[in-house]
Structure formats: structure tokens, C-alpha cells
Amino acid sequence: MDKKIIYDDFQLEGLDVRIASHKGAVVFIGLGEAGDSRGSEDWFSVRFGGDLVRAKDEDKDRALLDTAAREIGEYLRGDREVFDFPIELNGTPFQKQVWKEMLMIPYGETISYQQLARLVGSPKAARAVGGAVAANRIGICVPCHRICPSTGETGEFAWGAHIKKRLIELESLARRRSELQKVIDMAESDPGCESPIGEGIESC
To answer: Residue 193 catalytic?
Structure first.
């Protein structure tokens, strides 16, 4: 089986991002300095059993990496909530189950490890669920940053707690901005509607 992993490094909105793909699907998105270490040749050899090769212009996945980078950049600017590029989940059946459930968490929301454990049908396996969350290899797109301790703290993150905090705050701010814009659009379309701005966001 061909396990040549094509990758490239990008600087997106002040954040170092490493993106890797295999046969037309993104398999890895690493963030910051930890993204480089977890995306090293040794790491890929252990986790994927393949060779890590920097992308060339003629590689089939070159366009995919550039598309993924563009969409991640849009996300980091608060201009994108959903990603359109294909991904490939590589893990155990239980890990894949956890990751697929994480994909269902709405943008701008967070849940606890206990809540995630209940969602995957293993309410007493929060620790195992936490291990699966930590093993996620596709940062941002598979939103492990939306899983937080039940204490309300940000919690740990494979690519650094400071990056996790940034992503959570980004989504929260972008979501509030989107809700406010909906209110403004509604007020402009209906001049007789009293604007709720300043009194909390409500529908007219």
C-alpha cells in the first residue's frame, strides 16, 4: 500500500500550520511548533507507516493542500465555519467513533469529555474518550478544541492550550458577530422593527 504522505507548511493568520494528505484526502493538520514535531518524519513513520514528503507543484495533492490552507485561513479570520475539503480518519474504530461525533459539535459551542462519552454511547468511558480526543491528528477541522473539562476551564490541547483558547474565543466572537449581523439585516429589511441592539440579541 502506497503510504507516501504529501505535506507543506503554511503561515496562516500568524499561526504555523502543517497540512498533510494521502491520495486525495487531508490526513493531518498540525498547529504551531507542536504541529511541526507531531508532523515530523519519525512521527509519521510511527503513526502512518509511510514516508513524509514535501509537496511539489506537480504533485496531485498540491491543489488539495492549497485549498485546505485557504479554507483554514478563512476560518482563522472568522469567515468560515464549515470545511469543504475531504479528510481521511486514521485510527481505531473507537477513535473514529469519537472523532465523527466531534465533527457534529456546532461551531462556537463546547462540550465536556463526559458529555462526549455519553454521545458515543460510553458514559463511563470519559477517560478513554479523552485519549481518543488527544489522538486526533486533524486539528481545527476535526474540532477537538471544542472539548473542555466540566470545570469550565479551557483544558489541555495537543498543540498548546494557548492555541485552544484562541480557537474557542475566535468561534465565540465570530458567532456573536454573525448573530448581530442577522439582527441588523432584519432591522434594515423591516423599518418598523425595533432594533434590539443594546438590549441583547433577540428576534423582532
So the answer is: no
Q: pLDDT confidence of 158, banded at 50, 70, 90?
A: confident
Domain parsing of the chain, residue ranges? 5-76, 91-190
Which is catalytic among the residues 144, 148, 193, 204? 144
Element (H, E) at 98: helix 93-102
List the beta bridge partners of residue 112: 148
Across the range 182-199, mean pLDDT stands at 62
In single-letter form, the type of residue at position 168 comes to I
CATH class of 91-190: mainly alpha
- Residue located via cell numbers 475531504: 86
Contact 152, 165 (CB under 8 A): no
Position 30 scores a pLDDT of 92
HSE value, Cβ hemisphere, 13 Å, CA-based, for 16: 11
Pairing label, strands 25-31, 15-22: antiparallel
Is the separation of the CB atoms in 44 and 52 below 8 Å?
yes
The DSSP secondary structure of 123-161, one letter per residue, reads TT-HHHHHHHHHT--BTTTS-GGGEE-TTS-----TT-H
Does this model's pTM top 0.90? My answer is: no
**pLDDT tens per residue across span 167-177:** 999 999 987 77
